[in-house]
Structure formats: C-alpha cells, structure tokens
Amino acid sequence: MSKRNIIIIILVVTVLAGVGGGIFFTVRFINGQRSQIENFEDEIDLLEWQLLAYGQAVDVYVIRPGAEIRHGTVFRLDDIEVMVLPESMVTDQFITNPLFLGGAIYRVDVEPGTPLIWDLFTFEEISPTHRYYDIVADVFPIEPHVGQYYDLRIVMPRGQDYIVLSKKRVVNFYNSAIRIMLDQEEIHQYQSALVDTFINPGTYLYVTTYVEPNMQKAATPYYPVGSFVMQIMELDPNIVKLAEQDITLRRRAIFEAGLSGCTKTPEEITGQIVAGRSEQVSRLTTAAQNVLQQREQEAAAERAAEEGRDSQVQNNNNNSTTNDSPSNLMSNTFNNPMINPNGNQGNSGSPFIDGGN
Questions:
Q1: Which of 239, 248, 251, 123 is nearest to 187 (CA)?
Q2: Backbone phi, then psi, for 181, in 5-degree steps?
Q3: 3-state DSSP call for residue 46?
Q4: pLDDT by residue (tens digit) across 11-69?
Q5: DSSP per-residue codes, 317-357
Q6: Beta pairing, strands 149-155 & 161-169
C-alpha cells in the first residue's frame, strides 16, 4: 500500500472518529439537558403542590426592629413593617389591614418582630365630650412613663383619701403636668378637687399607678364635688347622666366634716383660690416652656448633625479628588504607613498599629 493511501485512510479514520465523538457527546449533552428539564419540571410540580397546600402569600405586619412599644402606647404605622406568610398560616387573629388600628392602644409591652394580632390591642371608648386635658398634681410617681394608667386622688389633712379620676392613660408628661383624656364630668371633678386643695392647707392631689392595667378594672371615683361645681354640672348640657345628687351631697358633707374647722372669710377664701390658680397657671406655663425648649434643642441638634454629615461628605469628596490626582499618588503612597514600611506608624491613629490611639 502506498504512503498516499495510508495517509488517506488515517485522515478518513480521524474524521470518522471526530464525527462519531461529536455525535456521542451531542447525544449525551441532549440527554443531560432532557434530564435537567425533567428535574425542573418535577421541582415546578412540587412548588405548585406546596402553593396549593399552603395557599397564596398574604401580607401581615410585625413590629419593626428598633421600635419600643410599651403597654398604653398608641398604635403608629411608623412602628411596623410588612411580613409575608402563606395563607394557610394566617388566622383570624392576624391583622392584615393596619388602617383598622386607628386609635388602638397596645395592651402589653411588645418586642420587635412580634406579629400584630387583635389581642395586642384595646380601643378606648371616646365620647363627644372627651378632650385632651393638662392637669397638675402635687405628687407624681418617681418613674413616670407615657402610656401608664393612673388614678388621681386627693388626700385631706387628717388622712381621708378620695379617688377623683380613675384609670387615666397618660398621653404625655411635662415635668410638673401630665396630659390625659377627660370627659366633661371628669373636668368638673378635677376643677372642684383643685379648689379644695387651694382653700384647705394640708390637702393635696397625688397620682397612683396601676400594677397590671390589663387585668385591673378601673376603680370607682367617689370624691364629691363642691356645691358650686355641682350646680354647674346640673346645668351642663354636655353631661348626660350625673351621680345621684343625694349620695353626692352626703359624701360632700362627710368630706367637709373631715376638714379642720374652716373659719376663713369669703375674702380669704377668694384670695387662696386666686393664689392657687396662679400657681396652677405658673406650673402649666413652665411645663409648656420646657417642652418648647426641649423641641428647640432637639431641632438644633438635628441641624448640627445634618450640617456635620454634609461637611463630612464634602470633605470625603475633596479628599477623593485630591488623592486620586496623578501628582499626589506618589506622595500618598510613601506617606501611608500601611504601605511605606519606613513611615511613621506611631501617628497612624489605627488601633491595630503600635502607637495608635
């Protein structure tokens, strides 16, 4: 056989081997792709089955990280974020529309990440005469908190103690005053108690805190308003129902009998009331000024922080522009103690280098 024929045979065999190998690997690749497609189809079938089993995705809501929720806190949209759950895991207790929580109050302390359910909330009954009202007292709790529930009480010189207002949620504290929500009748009760403290030395108002407001019912107020206030309450069209007048009068007689004999003239009583009112107004004014001053300080601090951030960004931009210029690349390199072994590492300011701050 000639050399030419041998070469031709070798070339033909090589071509046939290449073609056969290509066909083999092509068939193998196609089979692999078909197997992978079948696996994908199996996964899709599994996911579809799980979707049918668990149901569609539903948006529920949880307390966002960093939010501090204490019992008595008013619900705010800013304190929550969305979490998605399968429909099968969502019960009727879950809140799926936070707009239904307008005016809701948290019943307990709530940690971040807690899902919102109806049992976490209570809704205060608000009548047409309810108003936010700033009140003063002579003694407040040592550690007051917004959202806590309090009774306002009056104590007499000889120790007789009466409940004036019962289980009131504190909306805000202003040092010498608190803001709560009162109806028309309660406003009259508070004003009558104030006058009693003005004209009877040794009589004062103080505040007590509920231990478990979710479990404890509101105490029943039994402080009897004075006769002048009672006359106004009887005429007030905003008060739907008054306590039985004869019971109130008997209680008032007992209340006044407990006072050490009042022999003051009407002029003296008027002077004490005027002095007491002046003190009340002074305390409320001081509280308002403190709030305004605090807000101004917070606004100033926020402006300073914003200016600091803007200045830092500007400095970073300037440093970036300067350091990236070709003329400074060499000097920056040899002035960097992390790059230049002969640099002054002691002044680097890095806590990871000897001599750092």
A1: 239
A2: -110, 125
A3: helix
A4: 655 655 555 555 655 656 666 667 777 777 777 767 666 666 566 778 889 999 988 88
A5: HHHHHHHTSHHHHHHHHHH-TTT-TTS-GGGS--TTSTT--
A6: antiparallel
Please tell me the number of Cα atoms within 13 Å of 185 on its side-chain side.
Answer: 13
- Nearest CA to 248 among 263, 229, 262, 276? 229
Give CA–CA dist 28/33, Å, rounded. 9
Cα 2 to Cα 9, 13, 313, distances in angstroms = 11, 17, 84
Give the integer Cα–Cα distance in Å for 168 and 170: 6
Q: Give ∠ CA 304-305-309 in degrees, rounded to 5.
A: 115
Every domain of the chain and the residues it spans: 1-54, 57-123, 131-286, 326-357
Sign of the dihedral through C-alpha 50, 51, 57, 60: negative
83 pairs with which residues across the strands? 60
Write down the pTM of the prediction: 0.58
CA atoms within 13 A on the CB side of 113: 0
Q: What angle do CA 207, 186, 259 make, to 5 degrees?
A: 65
Token pair, residue 133, equals 């009202």
Look-up of token digits 């019962």: 166
For residue 186, what are its two tokens? 């309660």
Which residues share a beta bridge with 74?
105
Q: Is 153 helix (H, G, I), strand (E, B) or coil?
A: strand
Q: Tell me: the pLDDT tens digits for 141-154?
A: 887 788 889 999 99
Name the CATH code of domain 57-123 (choices 3.40.50.1000, 3.90.1210.10, 3.30.710.10, 3.40.50.720).
3.90.1210.10
Say if residues 75 and 100 touch (Cβ distance below 8 Å).
Answer: no
The label of the residue with tokens 């040899």 reads: 334
Q: Evaluate whether 175 touches 286 at the Cβ level (below 8 Å).
A: yes
- Tokens 């045979």 correspond to 9
> Does an H or E element contain 315, and which?
helix 266-323
